[in-house]
């Protein structure tokens, strides 16, 4: 879509507009998006699979809002199981968070639930089911929150949703989880130096861009010379992706919705639940947009086309960009107005694995008896993530963003999901400004379901509701 904005170039300065505070929203049933969660047959390219999806689409419908405005979405459950919708990365009223047992009761088959909330911060977000293994089916979609004072000048934008896929091909995600729970072994052939060793629990037969496999790729059509914003979302269950656009460098401008000082890189690694926005000035031709499944010897693939005459690149093309400068957290600098106050205290969260090999813990506790970090409203705390487990984990906090404290100084990025490698310690600062009982968990869906789920809660603990 064309934007009538002042084009400041790839390295445009970002504005100083302050985020709008989140708040509760009440009201009668409303008009807005309707998400019908139901069994569906969807095409992932040359293959059609049976899965669960919103409105029979993969990804689900794109939902758009403006910062400070309302999101209205009605979930209609036409599945044979309970379900919810979680609005990943949004600092919303806790009653709308879609966390079963913590913020709402899961919606029964045949039931419905109206989600109505303020979207306080502009940026790239997504929504997905938060019940069991449902997010490893097709129950996810993009949520894009526009900035009413958008400081970046660009000509158009594309949303890129990445996923790993097995449902309807080699059974269901629930069957895959049962196989993992029955074994103590891990596939040591799934390895990456960048992720510190073993990268995941299993190989997915397909990796997708916007619901399409490499055998029938998504095509993003544009024109030479256009400055384009790409919004990249990793909705996968078990796969980190190394992303690059052939023949181009990119300027990363946002991470998890929040702006940062633009940084030029050739590639970036995006963990499950993370989002990155980048700007690129497109050349003339047909270019491969590649998302390597890190450590898995596979890839998601799409084409960016600015010329009808150019030959389409091969899905197995080798990209030099994938081996050149990779983005690091230390490269990302938050805006001054997004810096959090100094923390008043620190707490340590130790990430571990029990000898069974299929139980993942936070402070040696499983989700059935979860670790709880108590905070008081208004304080800022430092969470020291100490990964004593043998695998990396993308840790996600509901209802808040945090500031990653890196060795590069006090201006680390604002995020809601952060990757922590084996034997690494990482500091994140959290401002307790959104009361509720919030999930804090690994966004590897298999690790989450094998126990790596805790909470951050305000004041004395309250009784959890039934699922």
Task: Give structural notes.
This protein has two helices and 32 strands. By secondary structure, it is mostly beta strands. The chain has a six-stranded mixed β-sheet with strand order 12-9-14-19-16-17, with no helix packed on it. The relative contact order is 0.14.
In short:
With 467 residues, the protein is mainly beta. The protein has helices at 173-181, 445-449, and strands spanning 33-43, 48-54, 63-66, 70-77, 86-88, 112-118, 123-128, 140-146, 156-165, 191-192, 197-198, 206-209, 218-221, 227-234, 241-245, 250-255, 258-265, 268-270, 275-281, 286-293, 298-305, 345-353, 360-362, 372-375, 380-387, 393-397, 402-405, 414-415, 417-420, 425-431, 437-442, 453-458. Strands 12-9-14-19-16-17 form a 6-stranded mixed beta sheet, with no helix packed on it. A 6-stranded mixed beta sheet has the order 23-22-25-30-27-28, with no helix packed on it. A 5-stranded mixed beta sheet has the order 13-21-20-15-18, with no helix packed on it.
């Amino acid at each position: 879509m064309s934007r009538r904005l002042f084009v400041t170039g790839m390295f445009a300065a970002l504005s100083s507009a302050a985020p709008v505070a989140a708040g509760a929203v009440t009201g009668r049933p409303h008009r807005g998006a309707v998400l019908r969660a139901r069994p569906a047959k969807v095409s992932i390219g040359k293959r059609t699979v049976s899965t669960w999806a919103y409105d029979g689409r993969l990804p689900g419908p794109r939902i758009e809002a403006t910062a400070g405005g309302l999101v209205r979405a009605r979930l209609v459950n036409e599945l044979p199981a309970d379900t919810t919708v979680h609005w990943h990365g949004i600092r919303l009223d806790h009653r709308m968070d879609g966390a079963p047992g913590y913020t709402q009761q899961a919606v029964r088959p045949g039931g419905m639930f109206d989600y109505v909330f303020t979207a306080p911060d502009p940026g790239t977000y997504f929504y997905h089911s938060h019940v069991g293994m449902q997010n490893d089916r097709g129950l996810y979609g993009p949520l894009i929150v526009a900035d009413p004072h958008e400081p970046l000048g660009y000509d158009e934008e594309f949303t890129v949703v990445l996923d790993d896929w097995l449902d309807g091909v080699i059974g269901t995600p629930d069957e895959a989880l049962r196989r993992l729970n029955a074994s103590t072994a891990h596939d040591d052939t799934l390895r990456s130096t960048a992720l510190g060793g073993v990268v995941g629990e299993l190989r997915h037969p397909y990796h997708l861009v916007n619901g399409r496999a490499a055998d029938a790729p998504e095509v993003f059509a544009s024109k030479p010379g256009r400055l384009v914003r790409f919004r990249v979302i990793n909705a996968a269950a078990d796969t980190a992706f190394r992303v690059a656009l052939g023949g181009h460098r990119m300027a990363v401008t946002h991470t998890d919705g929040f702006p940062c000082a633009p940084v030029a890189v050739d590639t970036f690694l995006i963990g499950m639940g993370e989002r990155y926005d980048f700007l690129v000035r497109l050349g003339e031709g047909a270019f491969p947009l590649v998302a390597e499944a890190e450590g898995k010897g596979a890839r998601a693939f799409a084409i960016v086309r600015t010329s009808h005459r150019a030959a389409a690149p091969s899905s197995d093309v080798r990209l030099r960009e994938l081996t050149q400068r990779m983005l690091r957290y230390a490269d990302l600098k938050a805006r001054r107005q997004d810096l959090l106050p100094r923390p008043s205290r620190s707490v340590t969260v130790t990430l571990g694995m029990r000898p069974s090999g299929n139980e993942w813990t936070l402070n040696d506790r499983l989700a059935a008896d979860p670790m709880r970090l108590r905070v008081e409203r208004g304080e800022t705390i430092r969470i020291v993530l100490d990964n004593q487990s043998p695998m990396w984990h993308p840790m996600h906090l509901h209802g808040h963003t945090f500031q990653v404290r890196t060795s590069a100084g006090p201006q680390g990025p604002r995020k809601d999901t952060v990757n922590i490698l084996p034997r690494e310690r990482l500091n994140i600062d959290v401002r307790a400004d959104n009361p509720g009982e919030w999930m804090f968990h690994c966004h590897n869906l298999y690790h989450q379901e094998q126990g790596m789920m805790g909470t951050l809660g305000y004041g004395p603990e309250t009784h959890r509701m039934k699922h």
